[in-house]
Task: inverse folding
């Protein structure tokens, strides 16, 4: 797979979906595209995208429901807003994983910037259990469908098993998008009742 998704991160949001135009026509609905790049010093850059038939505003509502993210994003044990200043939001999160029968937890405090008119939700760790944890969510729509995009640049602290983390991140990022998708669908159904 070429680096179409990774090439779009951390650039600004284009008018259409983050991937290249030829990929737009070949990516069917409800299909996840995913890429990972290994960088020096144990850094990993990941990008994942899902095209889906869902209202982008509903996706945005789900993504910014910070106090409830742990209810529908797998392996997220805790999420709560700790401060809000205009469009910037501080969110504390704890994620948990099982690696080889051992439970691994990581805590982060993120600063997110709600750029709703651009469909962008960039974030960066201001405190936590990683050396680097930053990225962004993007939501939008084009003439064929809506899309949900997530990009992450992560670097573990010394002693973290980066190989295991890498494997889990690849699986979990797709599951996270599916969790957001399912919650958005659930809310759409509830809104029509």
Result:
């Amino acid at each position: 797979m070429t680096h179409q998704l990774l090439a779009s991160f951390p650039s600004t949001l284009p008018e259409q979906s983050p991937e290249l135009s030829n990929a737009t026509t070949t990516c069917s609905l409800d299909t996840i595209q995913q890429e990972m790049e290994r960088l020096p010093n144990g850094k990993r850059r990941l990008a994942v995208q899902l095209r889906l038939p869902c209202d982008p505003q509903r996706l945005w509502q789900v993504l910014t429901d910070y106090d409830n993210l742990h209810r529908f994003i797998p392996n997220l044990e805790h999420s709560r807003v700790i401060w809000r200043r205009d469009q910037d939001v501080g969110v504390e999160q704890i994620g948990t994983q099982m690696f080889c029968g051992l439970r691994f937890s990581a805590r982060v405090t993120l600063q997110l910037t709600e750029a709703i008119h651009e469909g962008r939700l960039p974030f960066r760790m201001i405190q936590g259990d990683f050396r680097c944890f930053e990225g962004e969510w993007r939501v939008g729509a084009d003439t064929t469908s809506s899309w949900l995009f997530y990009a992450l640049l992560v670097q573990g602290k010394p002693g973290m098993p980066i190989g295991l983390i890498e494997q889990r991140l690849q699986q979990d990022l797709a599951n996270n998008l599916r969790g957001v998708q399912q919650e958005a669908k659930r809310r759409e159904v509830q809104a029509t009742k």
About this structure: The two ends are 42 Å apart (CA to CA).
